[in-house]
Design goal:
It holds the Pfam family UvrD-helicase. GO terms for molecular function: helicase activity; hydrolase activity. Keywords: ATP-binding, Helicase, Hydrolase, Nucleotide-binding. With about 600 residues, this protein is an alpha/beta fold. Helices cover about 50% and strands about 15% of the residues. The strands form 4 sheets. A 6-stranded parallel sheet has the order 3-2-6-7-1-8, sandwiched between helices. A hairpin with a 2-residue loop joins strand 14 and strand 15. The protein is globular and about 85 Å long. Bound molecules: adenosine-5'-triphosphate. The site of adenosine-5'-triphosphate has 19 residues, from helix 2 and helix 3.
Length: about 600
């Protein structure tokens, strides 16, 4: 049992709406759980629960972990704390009452990959996002909004983007629905409140009329400005609800005995001290892939050794990187390190779109369908992969290739319709050859072996796009989807003597996964984008960024940096906050790795 600070004790005894602020590791989550337990004991009627709302499933797992840590909270009290994401909570409301805001009664979720596919036609008509004028950006956004609404109202396919907005309209418009929600959840904890978007805030505003709100926030951990978080959000809350305010200040319980939190605070201003920071190390590396990754691997091995020496089984080491591309590169390098170093077991938090759509291609091949139109369906899935793999920011190359494949298929079918063989040099020849090889495999009924066999055929084939499918599909294992998928595929084999429903099963598995919240927190070595580390904690953290590319001494490219291009642009507030969040995830030690000849601008003292 922890000894609570006075400020934490005040949170427990004060009634009404509350705003709890405090720096990283100051004990906001902890006290809110104790508070929730107290409410469960003293205030809830049978059937009622306390809702703990988080942004991401990843954070939810950290909350579950924090609940487990509290031995003073009884099983029954824990049962009455419901931890959920905004998305999943909103979806429940929409499913029950969405018809009040123009949605059909039967609705399905349009998952991000499928949303990306649905919007790819609109997006492919515009230049790359960075090259658009403000007017073009607005025009593109308006078309996307209209299409999302059309899909929802006409086809019942609702994407995440619409959730908060529609729920806000619903709750503001219907006192009855509001009452229903508040009767079920008379108390709601809002985690990471500083990142609440405008639409989510509208929802909170409505619910706060009938439920008591406890908002947890660190104004300086606001890292989601780019999706609508607002520096003034805490003021909105204060004005609307007049909450009691509790400042847990810079108490740092996460990394007690270190200067990690102090270093985090100094990062915000760039005013560093001369004295070293206990628990924070800097490791420079040479600006080339060999030296960079060799240094990284050395750091990872040393950290792993230190953690194993602690004698605990659940140690965790996070490698935090600035970009998606870097997540992939680091994962590849740990899987096959340079020299004689054996592979380093790890998990990588990669974006889901590419792997999910790649998994669909493989699942379709596992079906070994003999239907006449099967090549059409196959090309269709490949095009979906190309259109959707980049999520909201598809590359021109992928979009163009999808168009190319479609028109090749049309020609191909044209030849077949005329009773002729398609020409040997057509775009689809190699694709078709790989397709035939993959569907000719003798399957065994062991889903993992069969899955790997199909993937291997794609990987070894001559169609470069299918090679990419295979590579992306490798992350399905990393996404920890394996187990559930495997069980369902096994069942299918037993039921049908083949994998006749593999595609539907795979799709279903991923939709379920979107709402699965009871994840164990990460342990072992994990790689993730710095943004994704929010709200988490690890024993050790390594922050690793990219390096400049030079030609004749001049920098010609500087990708994957914590600050874009490593260019000092003045305040750099968002980048500083983001960096601080990453640094303060560690309990014991944070190692910052940056190229020696072009050190991260945020590490240089402000003049
Ligand atoms: N009063 C306390 N005394 C000792 N340890 C504490 C105290 N309060 C919290 N802790 C511990 O400190 C760690 C960090 O606490 P917690 O996760 O609640 O912080 P937080 O403010 O929610 O952090 P962040 O905003 O960075 O996610 C946890 O391991 C928790 O058990």
């Amino acid at each position: 049992m922890v000894d609570l600070t006075q400020a934490q004790k005040d949170v427990l005894i004060t009634e009404g709406h509350q705003l709890v602020v405090g720096g990283p590791g100051s004990g906001k989550t902890t006290v809110s759980i104790l508070k929730a337990a107290k409410i469960a004991r003293e205030k809830l009627r049978p059937g009622q629960r306390i809702l703990f709302l988080s942004f991401a499933r990843a954070t939810v797992s950290r909350v579950f972990e924090a609940i487990d840590e509290q031995q003073s909270v009884t099983k029954e009290e824990k049962r009455r704390i419901e931890v959920d994401t905004y998305h999943s909570f909103f979806w429940r409301i929409l499913k029950a009452h969405g018809y009040l805001v123009g949605f059909p009664r039967r609705m399905t979720i349009l998952t991000p990959p499928n949303e990306a596919i649905a919007l790819s036609t609109i997006r492919s008509a515009f230049k790359a996002q960075s090259k658009l004028s403000d007017e073009e950006k607005a025009q593109k956004a308006a078309l996307e909004v209209a299409e999302r609404m059309r899909l929802a109202t006409e086809e019942g396919k609702v994407c995440f983007e619409l959730f908060a907005e529609r729920v806000a309209i619903l709750l503001h418009g219907s006192a009855k629905v509001r009452e229903l929600v508040s009767t079920m959840y008379p108390f709601i904890v809002l985690d990471e409140f500083q990142d609440t978007s405008a639409q989510q805030w509208r929802v909170v505003e409505a619910i706060g009329n009938s439920s008591t709100l406890i908002a947890l926030a660190d104004p300086e951990q606001r890292i989601f400005d780019f999706i609508g978080a607002d520096p003034k959000r805490l003021n909105h809350f204060k004005e609307a609800f007049k909450p009691s305010e509790h400042d847990l200040a810079n108490e740092n319980h996460r990394s007690k005995g270190t200067d990690i939190a102090i270093f985090g605070n100094h990062l915000l201003t760039g005013n560093f001290r001369d004295e070293p920071y206990q628990g924070v190390e800097f490791e420079g590396f040479g600006s080339n892939p060999n030296q960079a990754f060799t240094s990284l691997v050395a750091q990872v091995l040393q950290a792993r050794q230190r953690l194993i020496a602690l004698g605990r089984r659940d140690w965790s080491l996070a490698i935090l990187v600035p970009t998606k591309r870097m997540t992939r590169l680091v994962s590849d390098n740990l899987s096959a390190p340079f020299g004689k170093v054996p592979p380093i077991t790890h998990t990588a938090a990669v974006d889901m779109e590419g792997p999910i759509l790649a998994a669909e291609v493989i699942a379709f091949l596992l079906q070994q369908s003999i239907h006449r139109d099967r090549i059409d369906k196959f090309v269709d899935l490949l095009c979906s992969f190309l259109n959707g793999r980049g999520g909201a920011t598809p590359t021109k190359g992928n979009l163009a290739d999808a168009v190319r494949f479609r028109s090749a298929l049309e020609k191909w079918n044209g030849y077949l319709a005329r009773g002729k063989a398609p020409p040997g040099n057509g775009v689809l020849q190699t694709t078709f050859a790989v397709y035939q090889a993959a569907t000719a495999i003798t399957l065994t009924g062991q889903p993992d072996a069969d899955w790997t066999a199909v993937r291997a055929v794609l990987e070894a084939g001559a169609c470069t796009r299918l090679v990419e499918v295979a590579q992306e599909a490798r992350n399905v294992r990393l996404l920890e989807r394996g187990t559930q998928l495997r069980q369902s595929l096994s069942q299918d084999w037993r039921d049908t003597g083949g994998y006749k429903n593999a595609l539907a099963i795979t799709r279903q598995a991923f939709v379920k996964e979107h709402f699965a919240t009871a994840h164990k927190p990460e342990s072992g070595v994990v790689i993730m984008n710095m943004h994704k580390a929010k709200g988490k904690q690890f024993d050790e953290v390594i922050i690793f960024e990219g390096w400049p590319k030079r030609f004749k001494g001049e920098i010609v490219g500087n990708p994957d940096r914590i600050v874009g291009g490593n260019v000092n642009t003045g305040a750099m507030t968002q980048a500083r906050q983001n960096f601080r969040v990453s640094v303060t995830r560690a309990k014991i030690r944070t190692t910052v790795m940056s190229p020696t000849d072009d050190v991260c601008v945020l590490l240089l003292s402000a003049e």
